[in-house]
Every structure is written in structure tokens, then in C-alpha cells.
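fyi for ur records
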Amino acid sequence: MKIFKPDFYLKNIFSLTPEFCKNNGIKALLLDADNTLCIYHTNYPVDGVLEWISKMQQADIKLYILSNSKPERLKIFAKNVNLPYFYMSLKPLPFKTLKAVKALGFDKQEVALVGDQLFTDVLGGKFAGIRTIWLDYIREEESKFFKFKRKIEKRIKKNLKRSDV
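which gave:
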């Protein structure tokens, strides 16, 4: 089904370069936090993320965090990476995604939602009518719920060709 197919599939956030964005007409990125920029439930980005953010900003790519996380934690994380954010975005519902697109001031075709989860990030971008960039997760989660979702995602990933190869 087309709704479960991301527009792009990359290894990780570091595969997403300013050149990749420019070549694909992407001027702004809505970024998931957990397992995209940081380890699940932590307040600090993984090594290299601050440099990646700086590189993207120098290339005039606008960045905005769009997370389903609770406000207390996301506020700390967003401060640590110095980016604007929406917490409890309720992805895959499109409401806060569209609000973030509007806050960035770009047309929907110039924005992409980036994240590690098919059922929140990819589906949320599709529901909002923006492009999606699906990344491999940083670290596997332990809960049964996540393990179930990841099993389904692995089946879909087998049929995808990575965009950064």
C-alpha cells in the first residue's frame, strides 16, 4: 500500500545531507526525536547530531522537532539542541504536523517529516500530505508493543531500496 511507503529511506540522520535536501527541493524538516536524534527517553542527542544540525542550518535548511513525547522531557531535549518543537504531536494524526509546516512558512511540498517509525512518522507525513524520510532506528526498544511494530516494519523495509546508497 502506497500510504506505508516512505518517499525516501535512509540509514540514519547523518545520511540526510544539505545536498540531498537541495536536490529534492526540501527546504525544511520536521524531525522526530526518539530514535532519530536521541536514544529513546533521553534528553541529549546522540554523538554528531549537534554538528549535523549546525550543518543543516548553515545550508539554510529549517528544522523543527515534531514529537509524540511529553512536554517535560521534550522541552529539555529541544533546549539541548536549540530547536523549536511541538510535543504530544499525536502522530500519525496530521493536525500538529500541519501546524508545524505553517509555523515554518513553507509550502507542504518543500517540507519532509523525518523519523524512525512507520506507523507514526511515515503515516503522519502521508496523512498531512508532505514527503516522508524513514530512517533506521538508533537502538531497538524493549517493549512488546515496539517489538511487534518493528517486526511489521522489517517486512516493509525488505521491499524498499535505500535512497542513500
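Residues 92 and 124 are 4 Å apart (CA to CA). thats all i got for now
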